[in-house]
Design goal:
alpha/beta; five-stranded mixed beta sheet; 13 helices
């Protein structure tokens, strides 16, 4: 997935914090104040508690917890008012590492290694040696390396770039562009390098995203996928459990995909005709600065919008997987 000479460019400390904040677990409809925070990890052996640690408070007293040690991770989280918990049998992590070392091969890439490690960890969970709560990924099948590589290939071919750009208050809030070569992702480009190349902005992100696309293409190459929206819109969509939320957002242009590969158009409920119309409109907007053709193309796209279910392209629903990982719903 990542090439051996991958470069990270154009990120300030603020940009990194903003990117990471998008993946902070949160509830869709509950205030953050007063909620459980941090995680707690318990290690046991021979029926006795050996280690107890909270990610916020640090080490906890074992003597106090030994008298009525929780049996499950859910009980452990409730007792220490934590948002997640893990109960691990002593030696389970060492077993994962040893089996990983025995099964890994010299030619395995980052994807194969990551999936192998996840599979070994899941085996320990199924054996009852590791208990994690909440089990957000319960029931999600493990994809094969071929499926993951095929998905990446369909989203970004060799020499192509993917970008996500988020706006707030009429300005570029943050962006991440990833360029792929034959060995994997070889460039991860942040917003600090492209803000000055975007020129004078109109203050309307639905227009300004084109300036970001142009700046990215000049620095990283042709785009295969572009996703643009306001930061708050993406935060809400990440934890929205309603079916078709992403497809509706694309249909009403709360999220703009330009360009959009067929592999993403199909699961979002955008048929081939709509994807073609979207591409035509993008071309029309570039050659029609007066905006004569744009409104007609927009009307055609609104009539063509659909809200279908995720197509079974993968053994799991990728947008639902994102919601499970980030949402605090149990």
């Amino acid at each position: 997935m990542l090439s051996s000479d991958v470069r990270f460019e154009g990120f300030t400390a603020t940009d990194w914090v903003r990117v990471l904040s998008l993946f902070r677990p949160r509830r869709a409809d509950a205030p953050e104040a007063g909620r459980p925070r941090g995680g707690v990890v318990a290690v046991h052996a021979g029926g006795r508690l050996r280690k107890l640690m909270h990610t916020d408070a640090g080490r906890l007293r074992i003597d106090d917890a030994q008298r009525a040690a929780p049996r499950t991770a859910e009980e452990l989280a409730a007792r220490h008012h934590a948002s997640w918990a893990a109960v691990i049998e002593a030696g389970a992590l060492e077993a994962i590492v040893e089996r990983f070392g025995a099964r890994i091969r010299r030619g395995d890439d980052f994807i194969a290694q990551s999936l192998l490690l996840l599979q070994l960890a899941r085996e320990e969970v199924l054996a009852g040696k590791i208990d994690v709560w909440p089990a957000r990924l319960r029931g999600v099948p493990m994809p094969s390396p071929g499926v993951v590589r095929g998905t990446l290939e369909s989203l970004a071919g060799v020499g192509k770039t993917m970008v996500i750009g988020l706006f707030e208050g009429g300005e570029l809030w943050t962006s991440v562009a990833m360029r792929r070569d034959a060995r994997g992702i070889n460039l991860i480009l942040g917003p600090d390098e492209v803000r000055k190349d975007m020129g004078l902005l109109a203050g309307d992100w639905r227009r300004d995203y084109r300036h970001l696309s142009r700046a990215i293409e000049e620095r990283a190459g042709e785009l295969s996928l572009g996703c643009f929206a306001e930061a708050e819109t993406i935060r809400k969509l990440e934890v929205d459990p309603s079916p078709g939320a992403w497809a509706r957002a694309v249909a009403v242009r709360d999220v703009i995909l330009a360009p959009v590969p067929a592999a993403l158009a199909i699961p979002l409920g955008i048929d081939a005709g709509r994807a073609a119309l979207s591409a035509l409109r993008a071309i029309a907007e570039r050659i029609d600065p007066m905006g004569i053709v744009g409104p007609a193309m927009r009307a055609m796209l609104e009539r063509a919008g659909t809200d279908s279910e995720m197509a079974a392209m993968l053994p799991f629903h990728p947008l639902e997987l994102l919601r499970k990982l980030i949402s605090r719903e149990r």
